[in-house]
């Protein structure tokens, strides 16, 4: 008896629109339609999230509050309410679970869903994405954008095409051509420095990447070569992983002037703590190892790490440990040009208690529409 053909994969990437800021605007009518920054204050701190009205002025997450206020004088700062964001995230994930058992959360506000065999037997990934967005709006009062495609890379890129409150579909016969049109910086792992290296090599788009052979990419981009070689051709075989766990969460900042004074370093570290803790909260993470990264004025770089027996669960504990590590390095007469923090040895929520911990995909009858 011949083996039945493998069904075409159908992947959805859902990304909530300005999630933290949108929750605050939903719950406080006085903030609606106004530029809002979640986190930080007019004098200090770091923006954890910005409303679309604030983004028009160039305000972005991880931006120092002082810079954000300078760009947008009418910006309103709101204290984050992570317990509320987590509860809304649980509502959204319950909606996801109605449609698929294969769900990979990336953070509180985004996730991949494999709907190759959707639980309601709809058969069309496009229709499933539309229904999910409608249910999110009806049940939370928030909007979400969706990308629909046959792999994770294209679905994630597609979800950003028509933001906010939009959807974009890349069908199997369109993937290679769509990838060719993308700027090089849209490929996973291509940050500003890598983009500069690519530009120096004449690589500006997916089409430019496709012209380069695998050996060339391996020479210039090492471990990323295989991924880049496939992605620029619209290929990505990574599965949607229900039990996905990040290895670390961190952030760093390079200073325009070297920091010499102990008090200045302590204040600078507090800003890094704000930045990294907001990311930890956003990912609902807990970890046991905290690492401080320091680059001195002479470009010498060191790291110092400390581990604890149980996960660091509060900002107070996170801050205390970070300051203790810094204190062990003071004074620093040569000056510091970069500080960074990262949390690793992350602890994974057990399958039994995770809101998305469900059995493998059920054998719903498959329909072949996309």
**How many helices?**
13
Largest sheet: 5 strands, mixed
- The CATH superfamily of the largest domain is known as Reverse transcriptase/Diguanylate cyclase domain
CATH topology of the largest domain: Alpha-Beta Plaits
- Based on DSSP secondary structure assignment, what is the total number of beta strands? 12
Runs with pLDDT <50, length 5+? 349-368
Radius of gyration, rounded? 22 Å
Give the mean pLDDT. 89
Which assembly state applies to the chains in this document? single chain
Q: Bin the strand percentage.
A: 15-25%
CATH architecture of the largest domain: 2-Layer Sandwich
The coarse silhouette is: globular
Structural class: alpha+beta
Number of domains: 3
Keywords: Cytoplasm, DNA damage, DNA repair, DNA replication, DNA-binding, DNA-directed DNA polymerase, Magnesium, Metal-binding, Mutator protein, Nucleotidyltransferase, Transferase
Subcellular location: Cytoplasm
InterPro entries: DNA/RNA_pol_sf, DNA_pol_Y-fam_lit_finger_sf, DNA_pol_Y-fam_little_finger, DNA_polymerase-Y, DNApol_IV, IMS_HHH_1, Rev_trsase/Diguanyl_cyclase, UmuC
Site (Substrate discrimination): 20
């Amino acid at each position: 008896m011949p083996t039945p053909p493998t069904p075409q994969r159908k992947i959805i990437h859902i990304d909530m629109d300005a999630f933290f800021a949108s929750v605050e605007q939903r719950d406080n009518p006085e903030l609606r339609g106004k530029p809002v920054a979640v986190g930080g204050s007019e004098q200090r701190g770091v923006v954890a999230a910005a409303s679309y009205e604030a983004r028009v002025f160039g305000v972005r997450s991880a931006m120092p509050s002082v810079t954000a206020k300078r760009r947008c004088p009418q910006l309103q700062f709101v204290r984050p309410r992570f317990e509320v964001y987590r509860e809304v995230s649980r509502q959204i994930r319950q909606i996801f679970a109605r449609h698929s058992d294969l769900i990979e959360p990336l953070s509180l506000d985004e996730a991949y869903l494999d709907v190759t065999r959707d639980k309601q037997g709809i058969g069309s990934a496009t229709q499933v994405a539309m229904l999910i967005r409608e249910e999110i709006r009806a049940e939370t009062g928030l909007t979400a954008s969706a990308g629909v495609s046959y792999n994770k890379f294209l679905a994630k890129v597609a979800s950003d095409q028509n933001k906010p409150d939009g959807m974009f579909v890349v069908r199997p016969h369109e993937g290679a051509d769509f990838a060719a049109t993308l700027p090089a910086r849209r490929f996973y792992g291509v940050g500003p420095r890598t983009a500069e290296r690519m530009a120096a090599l004449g690589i500006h788009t997916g089409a430019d990447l496709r012209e380069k052979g695998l050996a060339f990419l391996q020479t210039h981009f090492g471990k990323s070569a295989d991924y880049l070689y496939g992605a620029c051709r619209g290929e990505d075989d990574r599965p949607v992983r229900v039990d996905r766990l990040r290895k670390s969460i961190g952030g760093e900042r390079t200073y325009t002037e070297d920091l010499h004074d102990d008090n200045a370093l302590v204040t600078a570290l507090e800003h890094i703590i704000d930045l990294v803790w907001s990311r930890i909260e956003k990912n609902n993470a807990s970890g046991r190892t905290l690492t401080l990264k320091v680059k001195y004025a002479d470009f010498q770089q060191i790291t110092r790490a400390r581990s604890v027996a149980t996960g660091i669960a509060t900002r107070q504990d996170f801050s205390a440990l970070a300051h203790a590590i810094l204190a062990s390095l003071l004074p620093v007469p040569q000056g510091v040009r970069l500080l960074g923090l990262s949390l690793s040895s992350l602890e994974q929520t057990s399958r039994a208690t995770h809101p998305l911990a469900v059995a493998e995909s059920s054998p719903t009858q498959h329909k072949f529409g996309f």
